[in-house]
Design a protein that fits this description.
The chain folds into two domains: 5-16 and 52-146 and 295-320, Rossmann fold (3-Layer(aba) Sandwich), CATH 3.40.50.1400; 152-289, Rossmann fold (3-Layer(aba) Sandwich). The model is unreliable at 319-325 (pLDDT under 50). Helices cover 44% and strands 15% of the residues. It has eleven helices and eight strands. The longest helix is centred in the C-terminal third of the chain and has 24 residues, at 297-320.
Length: 325
């Protein structure tokens, strides 16, 4: 198995203009148009962060940075393409682009650290179908999660300590640190889905590296954010409710590390920077969050290592099966 390796980087996607919000929201709702009230609420959130989300630009920078990191160490080996879940280029577009580039096989990675049936699983199901529809069909090596990769927790531990250090000394008496990720409907994680445990493991890994247990002024736990506007119960505890709880117990500051997100976008810039910060103001406590990973070279080097490791395993496994390399 020789030749060029395709890398399909999969991400959520976001509307590029305010006019595209309704169609985007309809796709998220699996073809059901939002009510006028829901559309107005979402549009207002985008307006509050400047009209649109920077996610497209952030994701593009991440994909370009990953391609550069792979090219630097293995010139000519990897071809990187983006495929998004809800906008163009789609996952199918990305796979078709890799096929057109003449790659021999594909490594798929989702820009979310943790594995979930409803999250990363949906990306890979589409990627598998798309890989099978190329001519000839492309073999797909999936990276279900990468939260346990070298340096991921270390990078976020450094940012957590920096956020703590940035608090006003007067607010440091009792600080609660929350490691957050996007909530999911409880029905989506009821049958042993690894997502909640992986998020909790990430929080514990970061807390250990940041030595939060060694700081008598700090407590830490996992919380969930950005639950959808549906009647279904979503996994918790909810971040805003947790902020109310710790404030009632005497906490003077809250620091949030959104471990489930890798870039600035609506769930960070609105749900945390506006909504959660506003909740902290109402409670009379200080608020800070860790800076997003975005296109930090250390983060992109981490992703490049994850891709190379997955490709190595694919080659090793195919060799063991008797496929010529």
């Amino acid at each position: 198995m020789t030749g060029r390796v395709g890398v399909l980087v999969m991400a959520h996607g976001t509307p590029d203009t305010p006019e595209g919000i309704e169609a985007f929201y309809t796709r998220i709702r699996r073809g059901r148009p939002p009510t006028p009230e829901l559309l107005a609420e979402l549009t207002g959130r985008y307006e509050a962060i400047g009209g649109t989300s920077p996610l497209t630009a952030r994701t593009t920078a991440q994909v370009d940075g990953l391609a550069a990191a792979l090219e630097a160490d293995d010139p000519g080996r990897f071809v990187v393409r983006l495929g998004t879940k809800y906008v163009h280029p789609t996952i199918e577009d990305g796979m078709a682009g890799l096929a057109a580039a003449g790659v021999d096989r594909v490594v798929g990675i989702v820009l979310t650290p943790h594995q979930s049936t409803m999250g990363s699983g949906e990306y890979f199901r589409r990627a598998e179908v798309a890989a099978g529809e190329t001519d000839p069909p492309l073999a797909l090596t999936e990276i279900p999660s990468w939260y346990g990769s070298a340096n991921f927790a270390a990078i976020l531990a450094e940012r957590t300590r920096a956020a703590l250090a940035g608090l006003d000394p007067s607010a440091r008496a009792r600080t609660a640190v929350f490691f957050t990720a996007h909530s999911l409907p409880q029905r989506a994680v009821a049958d042993g889905d690894p997502y909640p445990d992986q998020v909790s493991e990430s929080g514990a890994d970061i807390a250990a590296l940041a030595d939060l247990d060694g700081d008598a002024t700090v407590t830490w736990s996992t919380a969930w954010q950005s639950a959808g506007r549906t009647a279904d119960p979503w996994i918790g505890p909810d971040l805003l409710a947790e902020m109310e709880r710790v404030a009632a117990e005497g906490t003077t500051a809250v620091v949030v590390c959104p471990v489930g997100f890798v870039s600035d976008h609506l769930e960070v810039l609105y749900d945390l920077d506006i909504e959660a910060r506003g909740k902290a103001d109402d409670l009379g406590i200080a608020f800070a969050r860790t800076t997003s990973l975005n296109d930090d070279p250390a983060f992109l080097a981490l992703l490049a290592d994850v891709v190379r490791a997955a490709d190595h395993v694919a080659v090793t496994d195919s060799t063991a099966a008797g496929i010529r390399t």
